[in-house]
Design goal:
Helix content is 7%, strand content 40%. It is mostly beta strands and 87 residues long. The longest helix is centred in the first third of the chain and has 6 residues, at 22-27.
């Protein structure tokens, strides 16, 4: 039997990069995280992605957004597909 669907939330579920299908992964832009700063204060969080210093909510590229920064992972959104990456 299929697992029960997750409770409805206002945002799409976040799956890890590894959980995405090979087809979905092939569509995603390359992401190279070379540094991060995590703070309890979201305004102080930064991630260095593809050589650019970004804060939560900023675009990595058009249609490709850094949603949240965690201590060891980040949530990205590529044209509505939300997924997490570890670093």
């Amino acid at each position: 039997a299929a697992p029960a669907p997750a409770p409805e939330t206002n945002a799409a579920p976040v799956r890890s990069f590894a959980e995405l299908s090979p087809e979905a992964r092939a569509q995603l832009p390359q992401v190279n995280v070379s540094g991060s700063t995590y703070s309890k204060n979201p305004a102080m969080r930064m991630l260095i992605v593809n050589g650019k210093v970004l804060q939560e909510g900023q675009e990595i590229a058009p249609g490709f957004k850094l949603e949240t920064i965690g201590q060891r992972s980040a949530v990205l959104n590529h044209n509505g597909l939300r997924y997490s990456i570890g670093y």
